[in-house]
Amino acid sequence: MVDAMVTFFTQRLDYLLKHETECFTGLEEQVQWFKTVLNETGPMFNDVVEHDEAARSLLRELGDIVHNMDNLMDEVVIKMESVSGSDRELLVTSFGIEMEKVNVRLAENKGKASQLDFLIMAKEATSIDETSSSSSSLSFGLCFGKLPYYLRYCLMYCCIFPENYWIPKGRLARLLVAEGLVQEIPGVTMEDVAKENIQKLVDICMLLRVQHRGSGTKLVIPSPYREMLLRALQNKFFFALNNEDPSSIPNDARRVLINSDPKNIPSNLGNLLIRSLLMFGIKDISEVEFDRIRPVFHGAKFLRVLDLEDVKFKNIPDEVGGLVHLKYLGLKNTNVDGLPESLGNLRNLQTLDIRRNGNISALSRAILKLLQLKYLKMFKDVDVSGLKVPEGIGRLKNLHTLTGIYAGDGTAEELRSLKDLKRLGVMELGEEHASAFCDSITEIRGLLSLSLEAKNSCFKRKLPNMEQFSPPPLLQKLQLEGELENIPSWFPLLKNLTKLRLGFTHLSENPSLVLQYLPNLKHLSLWHAYDGKQIGKEFCEAGRFPKLEVLSIASHVLEEWTELVEGSFPSLNFLHIHNCVRLRMLPEGLQHVTTLKQLDLLPLLDDHEERLIPDGGEENYKIKNIPTVNYIKNSMVASLRNP
């Protein structure tokens, strides 16, 4: 794993020399010397046998050297900002002396490594579980050992999530980028590289994709693999995890995971030189228990990742502004009622996730100082409205993701400046914003995902006339929420679309007459999208919806789905029928959709259940070959609502 440590740290040194030029003026030669010698030393350990104690000792020493230099670099950035003139010259001299000490240690380590007669018996990773003789362990060890360093670290990083935790793919990618655990590829964004790494692990089944009806891709590590990786991680200097025992956190921990119980929060958390703090499953936390986290905001000065998702607290200390190295701040579903002005000091921040914090309705001008911000994820679940942003949001030209934003107050016009956006979610879009919004979208040619929600007006949510809209050519995901008079004429142009949700559009014409011709559509959700009482074989002609894998339908008015022609839905795996409370029969021909793996009927009319039962049910032949059929009877739903 030395190759990963060397590569990721030299990437960080390059980043600092490029983006923190003023801080390192006068220190460039020493930093460059360290980088050169580190690149020469690292390969000497590539074939080290883990149980060779001399080699392991040198390897641990090399890890300590890298960590010391990392601490020193971060200290330089923090202190250089607060001085000038002769004081700055003194600091440069002081840091130069400290760096020289680290460089001497590195040179000595290189000399010892070159003299050792290493026995090359096996690659480091192939011994990941030598105590186990099972074929699965040996097979995993061999496969793991053959992975490139960046895939090994991607898989190992997944172990910070609790067992059986559904890991969101996007969140994992952003965390890997913030942690500096992604290799650089010229011309490709770091998040795209991270997602490609994750996909490679999915392709070889070292990560498994979770089949679920919610949004986004979720992943898990197979339990046997996770156990073997955790045993290996106990001896890795790059990771230090808290397995529900505060006393087990060593002073040199770099990443700390606190899981399930706030009592696991160590009292010395603020004194640790950690780079990452992640908390999972801690929803009920007292003021006394949260006080043990507060020192992190002013003591963990080297922190790069702070993820407090689901931890229920209201106030972020002003001292958060001192975490100048912070790249990832996760505050989703935390009950935070505001963001301090000091947040504007976080000039390295790349991800800010404040979704589902109902008391935050607007962002202050401090957000405009975060020029490195790439992912601003917002969604106000109280009153379900967009968050207002200050005038000047167009300055944040590095933004790749911007969701949950209010369309008014000139924001629709400013979007045209955010030409690098890949994902955009706009709420409360009204007729008065439509023209400016459509003009702005024509400037964002690389947009891949777009969500539009209508403005509430007279107790209705109606989207503006979308005919003037010109869809981005690369668009892959589209969500429209609110009434539409007609299917827009540009829908047939969406050749790259893979995922579509039409929510509460209440169309009078059947949208599938157009949608079935989209060649790459894989996920389709028609949630109260069509107000027709009947659909028939025109819903999908033979061979149409060629790649559709998931179909969800919800309708309070649908009474009859008459038939499916043979050859329709050739790739369908999941059919979810929700809230179709008047639908009394499944379509004839459903039995011919042989690719179907799961059928959900939620809820199901009580008398319909009788027709689906295996013994004597007159409609059972339609579903008997579907591996999984889930349903909840209407009477059961009613009893749950009125116990």
Automatic annotation (TrEMBL):
**Per its record, how is this protein called by name?**
Uncharacterized protein
Q: Which GO terms describe its molecular function?
A: nucleotide binding
Q: Which GO terms describe its biological process?
A: defense response
Tell me if tRNA processing is a UniProt keyword of this record: no
**Is this entry keyworded Hydrolase?**
no
Looking up Gene3D superfamilies in the UniProt record yields: 1.20.5.4130, Ribonuclease Inhibitor, Winged helix-like DNA-binding domain superfamily/Winged helix DNA-binding domain
Question: SUPFAM superfamilies recorded for this chain?
Answer: L domain-like
Read off the InterPro entries from this record: LRR_dom_sf (IPR032675), LRR_R13L4/SHOC2-like (IPR055414), Rx_N (IPR041118), WH-like_DNA-bd_sf (IPR036388), WHD_DRP (IPR058922)
The record lists the organism as Kingdonia uniflora
Q: Where is the Disease resistance protein winged helix domain?
A: 160-216
Q: Which domain of life is it from?
A: Eukaryota
Q: Supply the Pfam families for this chain.
A: LRR_14 (PF23598), Rx_N (PF18052), WHD_DRP (PF23559)
Task: Please list the residue ranges annotated as the Disease resistance N-terminal domain.
Answer: 5-84
Record's keyword terms, sorted: Nucleotide-binding, Plant defense, Repeat
Q: Which residues form the Disease resistance R13L4/SHOC-2-like LRR domain?
A: 295-599
Q: Where is the signal peptide?
A: none
